Amino acid sequence: MSILIRQVLIPGQGIKDILIEGNVISAIGDAIQAVPENVIDGRNLAALPGFVNAHTHAGMTLMRGYADDLPVQEWLEQKIWPLENKLTEEDVYWGTKLACLEMIKTGTTFFNDMYWHFHATAQAVEEMGIRAVISAVSIDLFDEDRARQQRQLNEQLFRESQKYSGRIQFGLGPHAIYTVSPRSLRWNRDFAEANGCLIHTHLSETREEVQDCLNKHGQRPARYLQKIGFLGTNVIAAHCIWLDDEEIRILKDYDVKVVHNPTSNMKLSSGTFPYRKFRKAGISISLGTDGCASNNNLDMLEEMKFASVVEKMFDQDPTVMPAQEAFEMATKNGAEAFGLNAGEIAVGRLADIVLIDLRHYSLVPNHNLISNLVFSANGSVIDTTICDGKILMRHKQVAGEDEIIENAGRVARDLVIRS
Do 143 and 171 share a domain, yes or no? Predict the structure, then answer.
């Protein structure tokens, strides 16, 4: 497969042609001479790297709007967990297809997922054509029989995950320190090290989590994870709100990758992400939406705006987290955190590209494209999405989207009835 995008604006490079051969960008130039299988007229379009959604629970699209405006524990214990107990493979399959559809239409080409029914998620991702690290969430509730079952399941899923394409990576998903025993956390560390896996977890999302850790272990969460030997360069830690200065130094020492989820944090009143401290420490920071039960969408352009403006408000400083930094959190930083050869439009990079409609009203006038994207636009500006060298959306249309929307709505209604 080859694609030639003619006369497209590349921010920082000007109007260029982009040649895609296979799944990589093979050339960028003023007038590329080639006979590709597909030609895209790039006039009035801008080419950007596909967005990286570094933390989500894709199947939770089925819970969009189901349990809003509630305190966190009531939301989880009385609404979300009872519903999740009734989830089937079919539910998660269609919920994930809906999530992939939304991500494709809003410019995301990679996401980092943690949820139930691994194969349902993986099959949906395989069919939709984007990339993902998929982890089966592990929760043992400090019960050894359940922990043993979780270990066996993850070993089985790791073997079975090899059947999927290279766009899908297996990850480990120990939920959090308050739902997973220290023995299981150490097992995840050992298995990940032996098999080259990433570990996806929640860390210090709420004040209650920190207090509970202090009560049980006499230490704050990051210090506790250091003590049990869990931390490492392959750990992706979501939220990381209630960390003190010592814990931030610990995460830096172990090169833990941190994911900021501003919309979810605000909607659940979880707390404020200490962005300046993380950035000063030189910690990797990427951006995620969290799941649709707590966001309630997967639009990374919207997430960039919230990330920037909430930080400006919190610090009372309009210069903090400028648009370019927010944009890089969702592109370059995210790609680096997950070891993707992506995150920028350059020769040799993966052909994960989104084309922006420069005639969209939110991008006019175009004094500064990145500022417009972060502060003015949303996912509706995406015209074309290309992932792994394949066109997944053209002129805002995705193949099969009507069927996905119909079936996701059906299983969501059935799920609520069953629960």
Answer: yes
For the stretch 342-400, pLDDT in tens is 999 999 999 999 999 999 999 999 999 999 999 999 999 999 999 999 999 999 999 99
Question: For residue 218, is it within any domain?
Answer: yes
Burial class (CB in 10 A: 0-12, 13-18, 19+), 331: buried
Q: CATH number, domain at 368?
A: 2.30.40.10
Are 102 and 393 in contact by the 8 Å Cβ rule? The answer is no
Residue of 355, 249, 266, 360 lying closest to 308 (CA atoms) = 266
Strand partners, 114: 135
Secondary structure of residue 4 in the 3-state scheme? strand
Instruction: Measure CA 173 to chain center.
Output: 14
Whole-number Cα distances in Å, 147 to 144, 151, 181: 5, 6, 8
- Do 330 and 365 belong together in one domain? no
DSSP 11-74: TTTEEEEEEEETTEEEEEESS-----SEEEE-TTEEEEEPEEEEEE-GGGGGGTTTS-S--HHH
Q: How do residues 47-84 score in pLDDT, each as one tens digit?
A: 999 999 999 999 999 999 999 999 888 898 899 999 99
